[in-house]
Design a protein that fits this description.
Elements lengths: L3 H41 L1 H41 L5
Length: 91
């Protein structure tokens, strides 16, 4: 009953559906295995990761304090030069 005019699109749809299902299964399995391996690796090294994060945050905080102090010192310097150069007062 099938002719090439009708059978090609019908079996193309069936084949693409099979390909979609196969791709979803393979992709899901790959994601499951990859995610599980990554999670296990992170879990086993969680103490080292935690201490590294703490150390990094401490260094970032220290650097931020240095930048704030230098910005404040620069602003004070400019303010003193402007007030001192114009004969004005600081009030």
């Amino acid at each position: 009953f099938f002719t090439f005019g009708l059978s090609i699109p019908v079996f193309a749809a069936i084949g693409s559906g099979c390909g979609l299902a196969t791709g979803a299964v393979v992709g899901g399995a790959t994601g499951l295995v990859g995610g599980g391996a990554t999670g296990f690796g992170v879990y086993t090294k969680r103490d080292a990761i935690g201490s590294s994060v703490t150390k990094t945050l401490s260094q970032v905080d220290s650097a931020a304090k240095v930048v704030k102090r230098r910005a404040s010192d620069s602003a004070d310097y400019v303010r003193n030069r402007l007030v001192g150069g114009t004969g004005g007062t600081t009030d």
